[in-house]
Each structure stands twice: as structure tokens, then as C-alpha cells.
């Protein structure tokens, strides 16, 4: 007898991108979240013990600041707008410009910063596996992200 739940438990980067694309193509998903104010907003579309999918709106200039997703890997698809994803990988910063239909991904534990660089609101769909149970904030010091110790 098994005591675990059936279904997919681990997702590859490509599978996370496909999941985000699936929700991005869902009619009306971009309208499930309001586009008001000057702060980023998010709304959870689905959640299992092994996967979360969110829709987010980004006013012009909105940013996540540097952070990682702990043990969760992530992928996103841009529905509307223009964003830049800055990631710290292999000891250096990597920039990716993203527009409507573009996708991005971030490995578990990788510091990154996502910013709306367009003149209007941006809308993105994000898939995370496993779910987001931890996030580490970072500060930028001496040309690199440094984890902020929550215990200090």
C-alpha cells in the first residue's frame, strides 16, 4: 500500500515553461488580476503540493528586488509588457530582455531580479516547483548579490 499521492512530483525547466504557457493561453487569465496602483500584484491560479502557478501584474518600474526561491525552480511567460530578468549564475550577472510571448526560467537557489522596463503594465504567468515555501532576499554589494541573513 502506498502512502504517497499519485501524480507528477518533479518538474523539469521545460515542463515548468509548458505549464506557464498553458495558463498564459487560457482565455481571460490576464484579466483575473487588477492593474491599478504602483505595486506588483499576484494571484494564485492553482496549487498542488508540488506545483504553484501565479498570474502577476507589474506597473511601470515595478521590481522584485534581488531574491531566490529557495528549493523551488521557476518559469514564466510574458503575456503583456516588457521586462528584464537579471540572474546571478556562475559568478556573474546575466540579463535577459523579455517581451510578449517570451519565456524565462530560474533554477532553484539562483538569485534574480525581475523588473518591468516598459511604459505600461506587464502581465506574466509563473510556475514554481515545488511550491514557494521559502524566499531569500539579497542586497547588492561589491558587484554581486549577498543574501540577507534573516537571523541577524
UniProtKB/TrEMBL annotation:
InterPro entries: CDO_1, RmlC-like_jellyroll, RmlC_Cupin_sf
Key word Metal-binding present: yes
GO MF annotation list: iron ion binding; oxidoreductase activity, acting on single donors with incorporation of molecular oxygen, incorporation of two atoms of oxygen
Segment forming the signal sequence: none
CDD domains, per database record: cupin_CDO
Keyword Secreted: no
Keyword terms, alphabetized: Dioxygenase, Iron, Metal-binding, Oxidoreductase
Binding-site residues, Fe cation: 67, 69, 112
UniProt family annotation: Belongs to the cysteine dioxygenase family.
Protein name: Quercetin dioxygenase-like cupin family protein
Amino acid at each position: 500500500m502506498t502512502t504517497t499521492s499519485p501524480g507528477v512530483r518533479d518538474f523539469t525547466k521545460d515542463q515548468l515553461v509548458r505549464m506557464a504557457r498553458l495558463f498564459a493561453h487560457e482565455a481571460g487569465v490576464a484579466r483575473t488580476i487588477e492593474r491599478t496602483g504602483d505595486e506588483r500584484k499576484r494571484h494564485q491560479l492553482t496549487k498542488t503540493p508540488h506545483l504553484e502557478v501565479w498570474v502577476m501584474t507589474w506597473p511601470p518600474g515595478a521590481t522584485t528586488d534581488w531574491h531566490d526561491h529557495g528549493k523551488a525552480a521557476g518559469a514564466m511567460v510574458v503575456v503583456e509588457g516588457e521586462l528584464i530578468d537579471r540572474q546571478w549564475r556562475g559568478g556573474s550577472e546575466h540579463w535577459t530582455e523579455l517581451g510578449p510571448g517570451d519565456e524565462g526560467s530560474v533554477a532553484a537557489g539562483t538569485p534574480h531580479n525581475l523588473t518591468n522596463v516598459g511604459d505600461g503594465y506587464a502581465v506574466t504567468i509563473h510556475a514554481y516547483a515545488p511550491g514557494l515555501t521559502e524566499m531569500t532576499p539579497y542586497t547588492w554589494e561589491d558587484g554581486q548579490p549577498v543574501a540577507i541573513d534573516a537571523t541577524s
